[in-house]
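#lab-general

N.A. 3:47 PM
ok so I finally got the sequence cleaned up, no stray characters, all 498 residues accounted for. can someone with queue access submit it? mine expired

B.Y. 3:52 PM
send it over

N.A. 3:53 PM
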Amino acid sequence: MKTINQKAAIVALSALIGGGALLPFTAKAASLAPVANIQQSAITNFNQQAEQAIQQLINQGVLRGYADGSMRAEKQVTNAEMMKMILLALNPDQGKAAQQLEGKQDHWYTSYLEAAATSGLVESTDALQPNAPAASSDISAIIAKALQRDTKSIQHWMEQLGAGEQGLTRGQAAQLLVLSEKAIRSEAAEIVSIRSLNKITLEVTFSAPLTLEDETTVAANANFAFNHDLKLVNQPRLKTGSIATYIVPVQTMTPGTTYTTNYKGQHTHSVQASDEMIQLQNVRQVTADTFEVDSFRADGVVDYGYLISAYAGGRGANAIVVDENNKWNGQPMQIISSLATRQATLTPEGGEPITVSYVGFTQSTDGKQEPKFRLPAGTTLQPGVKYTVTADWFELKNNTFTAEAMSPLQIASATKVDATTLNVTLTADPGDELFGYRSVQLKGSDGTTLTAQYKVQTRKGAVGVFELQNEGKLAEGVTYEVTPVGSWATATDVTLQS
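B.Y. 4:20 PM
back already:
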């Protein structure tokens, strides 16, 4: 293949992208042999990836040549052009329907903007200026909606193509769309590879991303069907920046065991269990019945909450993209997958071991990795006693702590949000997720008693949202006395007026 510079390649590609200056796509398009020849001559000198991307989109009818066969200067793709390409490539049914109306309305792009608004890719037909250069932030958001995933992944792909913040050249747009087509969710997705990362985590690459339904825990457990009764403890999570690679949290695997699965009854795949333990650093008491352990990204350990597509949007600067070898900035990263249903063992000095359970939604918050574990209901840590923490899935560098007497949290007030929820405010910001799995009782002036439980991940400072259980509702005009369930907090004369 003859080598040419990148700018020349982009100039050549400008002739191939759809837009207002392009030939109308009609039944006569088949007679446009000279244009097709120009397209092929332009493609010939491209690098292999660009050539394949362009040819694929031409074959799909996403790209077309100009009527005069001219090649234009390097140019950013416009909003209208990008919208047309996205629809035709990622939502072909609506894209082709819009294509049938091209040229029959006030502007060539009107039907595409209407289709984009109807499908929810944009809020309205006037959300974007059609002829303005398409901004990277807008493109990533639209493609993310089309693929039902996060914008950080799309932005990562754009960065890999060398796109700047201001937008994409038409050449980069073609390659981005071909890459995005590989990320369309499919019910027919099959396992390509599977490996164990540690004793509780598998990494599975599919031929395409799973449907949202197939990503649920129930569906995934049924579809994977591992032998040796191995189960998923939470749903598979798509890695940010990947096309179709998932972090799959499973029960603790037995070292030396080979596990097999025939996903959806298709080809059988095998994976050797890992004997790698999660490496944690320290343990500390946080309440009278709860302790936490920690690990640090700087030491090469990261919680999967920071690198999965589902959470990327809410983690801000803490969200990262690791490469195919799970390296970040060149450093290998050990991945902690979901800790749902995980347990550990707490042994008091001179006493019997106690099984403790993970407190949900505490493993990665505020950029930290500090999963918490709680003693069985009604039991507390005894001040002055030294405790040792162990598990069959993690190792602690410093695995002991001496319990201290700790005062319970103090509830300052409770206010109604609506008929089924209330805000509970503490006297001070605990600075951590200490509300987890806690409840309060509401005794009404009408003689009724209700129970409300903390809604996970709703804490804002000292305030947490609590939801009424068992379909309970606050009655109008009733005054409720609010008290904590158990000894996790105290409340003095705290009432809620409904």
